[in-house]
Structures
1.
Amino acid sequence: MSLRKNELPRAVEQTAKVRVRKPAIMSGLSSLIILVALVCASFAFSFGLGTKKTYAAPTDHLPVAGINYTNLEGFADAMKQSRAHWDTYGTLDGSAPSDANGWPTTDASIMVWEGRDNNQGTYTLTFNGQADVTVSLNYATINDKTYDAGSNTTTARLVVTDTGAENFQLNFANTIRTSGAATNTGVTNVRLMRPTSPGSSTSYDPSVIFTTELKDALSNYAYIRFMAGTNWNTSVNWSDRTRPTDASQKKVLPGESGFEGNLIAFEYEVDLCNETGKDCYINIPGRANDDYVTKLAQLIKYGSDGINPYTSPQSNPAFAPLRSDLKAYIEYSNEVWNFGFQQAHDVADAAAAEVNAGGSNLNYDGETNSIGLAMRYAARRTVQISQLFRNVFGDEMISRIRPVLEWQYNNLNGTAAAMLDFVNNYYNNVDGQHVSDPHPITYYIWGAGGAVYYGSNNDAATSVDAIYASGLPVSHYDGDHTYQQALNIEAAWAHAYGLHFVAYEGGFAVGGDGPSDVDTAARWDPRARQSMLDSFNVFAQAGGDLYTTGTYAQWKNLYEANNDPLVQAAHDINNGTFTPSSVTQGTQVSGSDTTTINGSSYDIRVDAYQSGAPLTDNVGRSAGYLLRVSNEGTYTVAVSVGNTSDGKKLAVFVDGNLLSAIDVPNTGSMSSYQTVTAGSVSLTAGLHAVLVVATQPSAGHVNSILIAPGGTVSNPTPTPTASTPTPTPSSDGWTKCADEGGVCTVNGTAQVRYGANGTYTTQTVTDSIFCSNDAFGGDPLPNVVKHCDYQ
């Protein structure tokens, strides 16, 4: 398995600026951090703008839309989103000395915000110590400054009248940190409480953490994904993390990118979810050790004193735990396949070093592909994180605490197969005795998936009308699949293993990482609302559950977010005014008769990409079949299978749980079959999956899957064998034996080649091989397989 494209950094801005966006809907390449100033405008439609909202806990109805909180917009205290480092007084050098909490120990300056508009109004400035305070570029006046010696606190009113985009710097001179201290010793605990709305003469109380505008905007979403501070995060120990007591929530450790590093404290993430009543989706830094993960789990369950988590319930915690009626989604890092981020290099290097040292379970079956090993490392870490959270949350795992496993969306099979198959096989002892306490993949992981971005059919159009006229969302996704087909493939991989389909990122992406003015205007056009609803409808039809927006901007201006079409679409989805279509993917299962699914009509397939023969003749390592069940009840699952060997077995799973390991009969021919009952299972109405997994090499040829209501499977009428024309060797001595999706039977041992356009891979085959465009021998074929030849 191989990474087809490197994906580089994407956006972090949510509101008036957008950074590093995808260049095209299926491209992962980007190379610049692009700051795009978006023109402020508003549409006539509004729901609840300026009104008081209630933040009720979400129900667990699915599918829903969530949002990436990818910057620090919305803190009531502007200092919490200031630059990470103080400047030498009057400069921008970032080199003023500071204490352990990030407060300056000399006279110093701080850039509080950059390029931000709508800052007008009255602020309350407080800090411990004394200083002469000024504002660079005269963007504000400072009035009513007082000093209380008893509390060593200076207070002042700071009035901003400029409404445009500003770089706002505060300067502290002649500083005296404590009573009796010398001059030029710095200040501590600086707070700059924002106006309660632009232009207001009233500022927020110091007890307020997040602005009303942010909470109102987020009220339209079902959950909040806190990706901010994950990419390039080098934290290993709990002490490395950003704390709520830090001077800025933009903490940057040595070696981290200033674009992103640590960022917001987990306490504030939990607080924002508690205040808005939204489920909490947390990304764990890639290097975080087990103690870090355990402490994070404890913080979510019990709260924190601001430095360390509590280890039991507290009557009055300094920082509260996540509300018990809210869920937590837990993801290991972010885009561990994206080598534009440090975490991808970390994962790949760690996997390689471990395998080279020997004794690793990553290559227990002889796997050698570097990307495959890296993805197994990430999957294993997800399992370990799940186990660490289970130690804290016990039976709340999966029901309330929901680990998720994500893969590269424009490599729809490769990274998914490497991770899912490894966890399923190794940690559930599917292909051998590996662990003493095996569990199905659903014991460790709740959901899985990739990204679901959409553009138009002509992102290069020169007018907004032309963009929408071309079709939005895009119909032809990647050259081979429609948008619906692409999302179906992603969803099928998750559901085949009994997992929910979770899109970690997605939504409107016209113009990708470098949108033109026309692309940007299309985002704010009222028609964008319907485009997102249409995209979400495709997601729902694929069997999606969590649709995450917001890596790219959802609103132009936080104060008017509810006027913007993409926010309105999220409101429609999550508040019942839009009802998506039912799931259309999978085979419809009859409630009265046996439903037969052709063995080659799989929804997912994993081939044997390590050396040697495929693990099953013509099927490979595993094949997944999705079922749409209309009538709840008990269903019997059977497999029509054949082999020319004795003693072979196939494992049959339903929704990720082992139904049985069936004995494959020796039918005397790979084209003769017998029906073997795997067992009966209760199925609710909805989408389900049967996964057939080979537990040993050459385990058999699966002709069909049979699903019958009740306890009896009716054998299908045998399919007559079609007459085979006499093959004609090609000019180079090879004879065509099958088209893509067919079986090449060689009746013995032969050399088989598969490929297209003159580029082929050759393999020694015994009996037969399934001709598909999946990966063989390590890397995906450079061209889709058109046919197989033999000689």
Note: The chain has four domains: 64-72+212-574, 78-193, 587-709, 735-790.
2.
Amino acid sequence: MPSEKVPFYDPVPPTYDEALAGSSRNWMPPPPTRDPIDERNATETESQSLLPRSGENSQGRRPNGYRPPTVESDEEDDLWNSDSDADETNQVRREMEELEIEEPNRTGGSSLWGKRIGFKLSLPAWKWSWRFRMPRFRIQLPQRASLSAGSSPDDEAIDTDEIDNVRSWMQDFAFPKVNSMMVLVTFARLLALAIVIGFMYFLFASGMLTGITNGVNNGGLRFDPEDLRVHLQRTVDPRRMRAAVKIFSSYAHIAGTEGDYATALDVEAMFNKAGLDVVQKDDYYVYLNYPREDGRAVQIMDDKGENAIWTAALDEIERGGETAGKQTPAFHGHSKSGDVKGPLIYANYGSREDYQKIKDMGIDPKGAIALVRYYGTQTDRALKVKGAELAGFAGCIIYSDPADDGFLKGDVAPGGRYMPEDGVQRGAVSLMSWVVGDVLTPGWESKKEVPRVKVNEAKGLVQIPSLPLAWRDAQILLQHLQGFGQKVPDAWKGGVPEVGEWWTGNSSSPIVRLKNEQDENEKQPIWNVYGKIVGMEQSAKSIILGNHRDAWSFGATDPHTGTAIMIEMARIFGDLVGRGWRPLRSIEFMSWDAEEYNLIGSTEFVEKNVDSLRENAFAYINLDTVVSGPEFRASGSPPLQKSLFRAMNRVTDPNFNTTLKDLWDRRGAKLEGLGAGSDYVAFQDIAGTSSIDLEFGGEPFPYHSSYDNFELMEQVLDPDFTYHGLMAQVVGLLLLDLADRPILPFDMVNYGRNLQSWIGDLESWAKKEEEKKSKKDILKFDDLKDAAATVSAKAEQFSKWEAEWDRMVHRSGGWETQELGGKRIAYNNKMGYFESMLLDLEFGGGIPNRTQFKHVVYGPQLWSGYDEAFFPAIRDLVDAELWDGANSYINKTATLMMEAASILEI
């Protein structure tokens, strides 16, 4: 039976039990039945009626352990029940009911500025509703005389007194006398009417009122931009975001599981409730793996390698409990199934250099089990495992060391922000810098019936088993290595206590068993959820805000700091639409699934819609692990820097009593480049959509562990949800600037300057590589440098037109002609299309051996996936000493840059 719960907002999704009660997968949110603004102003009694009562959904299921993920449920084998204690959830709901805040009643004068608009309104507190009504005229005529008393109708007797009154009225009535003054007044009025009619004809003939009619036809009116910005900043409510983080992180929801499906329904209901124009859910069928609780083991074996003398605990102390659906077992997404044994060898951070060092020490890694730690010189866990595989290891264990994210840094969770002794960092080990998205459909979307690569042939998968481990368990392994192999260099020593001496181990080390048997599904369903506000001038062009929804465990920080902000943006912008406003360009809100498994949800969407995105997606804003500290950071494409700085200049950090931009400048920060690691990858590197990734960061936190829960967020990371509020302001201002500014606020001059700087860095790096390999002056960068100089010069000239447009509009008293408006739209389109011109789209084009990635400037590094890498194809070829290929790709890049520069003309 479908769930009987009614979707609600502000934003309080259901608990896990309620979402799943009675097979909630069949539940779909009903369409809105009343006005969104009226709904937001519902009385407390009405709000209460939208919430399910504690006694409802008696057929729900109680979580009592991990269940292999599926959205299919067996009524006789239900694991979930709704009789769990709901006090916590009811408290959150009461908090949300108390958050019904009256919107400011703002009024103000109007002004004129452009063809598309004609007038701007200060932000009203009511929903726009206007209907043309014809005036009514009433003429009082004399009443017909009543029949005389006692007379019959046949006599048609008429009261003589009434007839006398009528005659008297007619005699007294006379037309006014015509004199010269009356003629003059009449002529003046006719002349004024003719002037008004002529002026209106001129406006329509010149196209100046096109924008007004277009705005009305599309349901949008223009408001004063400053009023919009002020309203947005005042409307952001950290308490709503607190409630959203609490609800979404109240149960585990790995991609493809029932918990994940419940969150998809929640987001869909919230988008509908926010009043977005279009809301839809999109399914894909992808390769995912899940752990078996009895299928995982890390053990030290006896001398014969037959019996275990010690077994690792593997999992953390339970942090969720039954009411939270129980935490996820520790495992690696997309890991290789297997049960292997071998001598244990410690290899520091698991970089290529570390594995080479092991070999240089005379230690044979063949058939051994590698023990490496997170972070360090190799930040990508997948490349740690791949490096071990290529070095000859049979398996790989990755542990969290206190020197990197534990007690040596400070207080540990739950009272502090660092990883405790039992904390385990989960994560995927698919090679996202090699293949992105579903590893079985690289380059095309994973719909149900499409062809697939065989699992054992997938380039994005590692070929040895691996597991994550807490330092509590790694301590025992490190202690058993003493006396085997060689003492490690000082730089290799971690912070695990009571280890004493750190040794590498060798082929005589204790035998360790690594068992990783798992459930695998090549067509596991996942669910993206989309919402859209249709723009009133260029509805096909869009600004996209994206955030992933799946989590390795509870995911309060990663990803639900971003989820809460995206839902808050949908609420605020949906409210603006309800008030009559519309952006010039469309705004899209996208909740991605399976990001943690190799960025699957966003990549499959891009692969399905790639041509449209290359043509119409102007910008992509990514939210992920958005709030984990107080330091504002941003990575992105240079054109977006102008809008970012505008937003930062308006947002003040109350803890430092100054703007984010001032704090940014004080520490000498800059807009970093994009590598890999989150959902911007497919947009930037495949679709050529200018992208930006935002966060408030800080010191490490219990990343991907069960300690990343609501309590940690509320008590340690952002107690007052201050930084949630600041980030929401930044994101909202960015959306307004990019979607509603008449001229797209892209900084093309900044792009040209950055290209020149990056090419200078590339040339310096390449020269050093030539020297290392005893080569000299093989690579020729002259054409590439000339192309960057051309882009820079063209961008300088191109950008001057914005000032010319502004001058022409002001000179005409704030009006924009139809011809000038057409030029402005073409100008915007050229800026939006520039990034797509930097894609290598010829047959077989893209980064060699990684042809999914098409951008010639941006892309992940082959062996350092999370780090920024400019001109990755050239770097790959130089690293492989393919000098001719490198020169050829330098020339190709220069050609594409020249073609991109050619569109920067008026």
Note: The chain has 27 helices and 16 strands.
